[in-house]
Amino acid sequence: MINIYERYAPDGYDEDSLLYLVGLTMITYRSGRSLELCPAEIDRERCFIQLVNRILEILCPDDAQRTKIFRDALACGYSSKILHWLLSSIRVMDELHGDWILHDMIDKGFLLLHPAIIKLAVEKMRRHHGHQYVQSTRVQSSATFLAIAHPTSFFAWQDILLGVGHDLDEFVAKELEAPSSALFLQGWRKNTLLLLFRSEAFPATNHGDHPTCDRCGQRYKRTKFMVDVPWARYLQGIRQGRLTPRSKCVDVQDITIDFRGGLASKIDHSSVSTDPYDSMKLPDSAPYRMVCKVRCKDGVCVPKVLEGSSAQDVFVLPYPLEEAEEEEEALAGTREEDASRLTSSLVEDSCPSRNIPGAFGD
């Protein structure tokens, strides 16, 4: 294909045509597409790399064009191997598409599955505070807002920011400077968000490849459709000032020294909890960790029920289908018993009207 293109374009190559050829190759070899004219054992990734690499040798694209190619490969669902290969050739990512790329990678769970790729992308970006408007709203979402949805993704994001040399104080201030920031509207302020960024890692659950709701059994492909209940209550406690997490950056002392050299009074921490597990205590009526973000199969939104309630006051009804299934099984057993009794009675007496007065006998 490349040789044919070179033959019919001897005087030069049109950039738009070459980029179109890259896009056509990307669509052809994407995962899940049927390749009827190719053998079943074809290595799609190898073919894609060979073709695109040859086209790029002719095109010699700049960073802006390479960023577009990487964005399209991400949208087509290519593997981490292809994405890493494309990303490695970019020196500085174009800001016009960099914000969308970072949001899309976090939205697809790359902080959980491929944190090294996000770290490489962040190192090639000039800014990490790019805000994207949530669809049909005036709320501005950020990478931090998306990462904060799950403990593992948030602390992976924390490590990446510290690894590229960010000052957490300045970073948090920029995150909240816009009044339409999703974090600001959610109730986060500089002091509380800074406490979270400086906190120790939170114990996360191993949800596997397909996270499942602990209440209704609904399975999802991504954790973005679920809520980690203890983590949500942990965040709520920090936002409302009821919880002070343990800091991994500095050790807070309980005593201070005044200017006269004497010891000042101890700081009273009795009203503030420092145990992250305090926010994880749930009543026996709601023994759930991972639940559906919007609503369960029966229409109950567990996160909304838990929001604003203490662990002692909250009550979540058990999933009704469990009881319905038990009742249906019991009813089915009763029907089988009735049917067996009727069958046995018919077998014992083939003429049910034998005992009716006036009936003819043998």
Note the topology.
Elements: H1 2-8, H2 15-28, H3 44-59, H4 63-75, H5 80-88, H6 95-107, H7 110-113, H8 115-123, E1 132-133, E2 140-141, H9 143-147, H10 151-163, H11 168-175, H12 182-186, H13 190-197, E3 226-228, H14 229-239, E4 290-292, H15 302-306, H16 320-348
Antiparallel strand pairs: 1-2, 3-4
Helix pairs in contact: 2-3, 2-4, 4-5, 4-6, 8-10, 11-13
Question: What is this structure, in a nutshell?
Answer:
The protein is an all-alpha fold and 362 residues long.
Q: What can you tell me about this protein's structure?
A:
This protein has 362 residues and is mostly helical. Among the domains are: 1-94, no CATH class; 208-249 and 272-321, no CATH class. It is built from 16 helices and 4 strands. A hairpin with a 6-residue loop joins strand 1 and strand 2 (140-141). It is flat and about 105 Å long. Residues 250-286 have low confidence and may be disordered.
| Strand coverage percent | under 5%
Shape designation: flat
Using DSSP, what is the number of strands? 4
What is the subunit organization of this protein? single chain
Question: How many helical elements?
Answer: 16
- SS content category: mainly alpha
Question: Roughly how many Å is the radius of gyration?
Answer: 31 Å
Reported for the largest beta sheet, the result is: 2 strands, antiparallel
- The strands making up the biggest β-sheet line up spatially as 1-2
Question: Percent range for helical residues?
Answer: 40-55%
Q: Which residue ranges are poorly predicted, with pLDDT under 50 across at least 5 consecutive positions? A: 250-286
SSE run: HHHHHHHHEEHHHHHEHEHH
Mean pLDDT: 75
> Distance between the terminal alpha carbons, to the nearest Å?
93 Å
